[in-house]
Amino acid sequence: MSVGVEEAPIPESVPKSQTVLLLHSAKDPYHVTKDYLVPSEYNDSEILVKTHTIGLNPIDWKAPDFNFGLPELPYIAGRELVGQVVRVANDHSRLHIGDLQVIVVSSDYRDLRKAAYQEYVIASDFNVAKLPPQISVTNGAAIGVAFVAAALSLGVCLGADFSDVVGGPNLFKLVREHDPELLPKDVRSECLGGISENDRAKEGDWVAVWGGSATSANLIVQLARLVGLQVITVVDKAKHGLRLSNHTALRPDLLVDSYDPERAIEIIRANTKGKLRFGIDTRGRDTATHLLHALMPEPQLVNGHATSASHDDAKQPKVSAHLVGLTGLPKEAPPAGVTFHTVPIKIFHDVPAVGETLVLWLERLLEQGLILPPEVLDVEEGFEGVNRGLDRMRKGEISGGRLVVKI
C-alpha cells in the first residue's frame, strides 16, 4: 500500500463487491465480471462515487482495437461518468455524502480504481464537478473529458486567458507559477515553454478546428467564443453543415467543408488573409497535416519563383503559428515558425490546483448557461450496453454527438 493511502472502512450501504467490465486482451470485447472488489484504498483527497451514467469515448474502443493505452491486463476502461457520492475521506471536502449528481472526469487511465466501467469509482475530489440541477444526468455524462481537453488546448497550448469569463483560469500563468518539479516530466516543456507571452491567443485572433463535429471540438468552439476568438470549423458539411450553421452555441464565424482538403486550405487562407496562427485538430495525423498547410501562408510568386516575406512583414514582431493535435500530429518535424503541441492532460489529475480550478469553473459555466453539453444521440442500458455502444462507434454510427450508458 502506498504512503499516504489508508484502508477505508466501507459504509454499510456500499457492498464489498461489485460488477465491472474487464478487458482481458487486446482486440477482445469487454467482459461483464461480477464479485470484483469495490475500491477501498484511498487518500484524503479522494471520494467514492456510485456510477449512474457513463459517457463513452472513442479511446474506449480504439485502445483495445489498436493495442495502445493499456497499462495492464485485465484492464478497466472508462473516462467519465455521472454518479452519487457515497463516501468522502476528508470532512473538509467541498463534496458530501449524498451529493446526487457529480461529474467524474477520470483522465488518470493508469489507476483502475478511477475507471468508469464499474459500479463504484474512486475519484480525486479536485477532478469532480457538481452538476447543476438544470443539466440532466444524461447530458452531464457527455461533457467532462471534452471540457478538460478543450480548456487545456486553448489555455495551456495556445495561451488563451479565461480570467474574464466568470472568474475562469489563466492557465498560462497558473502552470508557470507552479513548482516545475511537481509538473509531470513528459508534459513539463509543453506547460512551461510551449508558447511565449508574445504568441498567446487573444481576442480577435482566428483559430481553426479541423474535425469540428467531434465532442472536443464542441467545447473548443464554445470556450474560444467566450474569449473572443474567431472560429473556423472544418467539417463534412453534408453531415453537419446545417446543424452547425443553425446552432446558437456552435455556429462558427466560418464553416468550411472538409470534402476537398486542398480547397478547404484555400478557403481558410483566403478568408484569414494568410494570418491564421492557431489550429486544433481532433481527427489524426492526416488532417493535422492539412491544418498545418492552412497555417502556412501561400507563397507569392514573382517571375515564377516563390518569394519570402515582404519588407513590411519583416518589420512586424516575430510570432509563431501553433498547431495542437488531440489525436496526432504531422509526421514531419514542424517547419520554421510553427510549433506543434500535444495536450498535457496529465496536469488535470496530477496538479490539484489545475484540476480544481477547471472543475469549479465548469460548475459556474454550466450553472450560468455559458456552455452547453454536447448532444446525446442515444442511451444504452446496463454494462452489456457498453459493448453495443462501442460497436456503434466503431461503425461510425455516432457522429456529431455522444453516446452514454445508464447503469
What would the keywords be for this entry?
single chain, 407 residues, alpha/beta, Quinone Oxidoreductase, Chain A, domain 1, Rossmann fold, six-stranded parallel β-sheet, 19 strands, disordered N terminus, oxidoreductase, Quinone oxidoreductase, ADH-like_N, GroES-like_sf
How would you summarize the topology of this molecule?
Blueprint: E1 6-7, E2 17-22, E3 31-37, E4 41-42, E5 46-55, H1 59-66, E6 80-88, E7 102-105, E8 120-124, E9 128-130, H2 137-140, H3 144-157, H4 171-177, H5 185-193, E10 206-210, H6 215-226, E11 230-235, H7 237-246, E12 254-257, H8 261-271, E13 278-281, H9 285-295, E14 301-302, E15 305-306, H10 311-314, E16 321-325, E17 338-341, H11 346-350, H12 352-367, E18 376-381, H13 384-394, E19 402-406
Parallel strand pairs: 10-11, 10-13, 11-12, 13-16, 16-17, 18-19
Antiparallel strand pairs: 1-4, 2-3, 5-6, 5-8, 5-19, 6-7, 7-9, 14-15
Helix pairs in contact: 3-6, 8-9
Q: What is the end-to-end distance? A: 30 Å
- Please count the beta strands (DSSP E, at least 2 residues each): 19
Cα-based radius of gyration, to the nearest Å: 22 Å
Helical stretch tally: 13
CATH superfamily of the largest domain: NAD(P)-binding Rossmann-like Domain
**What fold name goes in the CATH topology slot of the largest domain?**
Rossmann fold
Family: Belongs to the zinc-containing alcohol dehydrogenase family.
InterPro entries: ADH-like_N, GroES-like_sf, Lipid_raft_assoc_Zn_ADH, NAD(P)-bd_dom_sf, Trans-enoyl_RdTase-like
Pfam families: ADH_N (PF08240)
Subunit structure: Monomer.
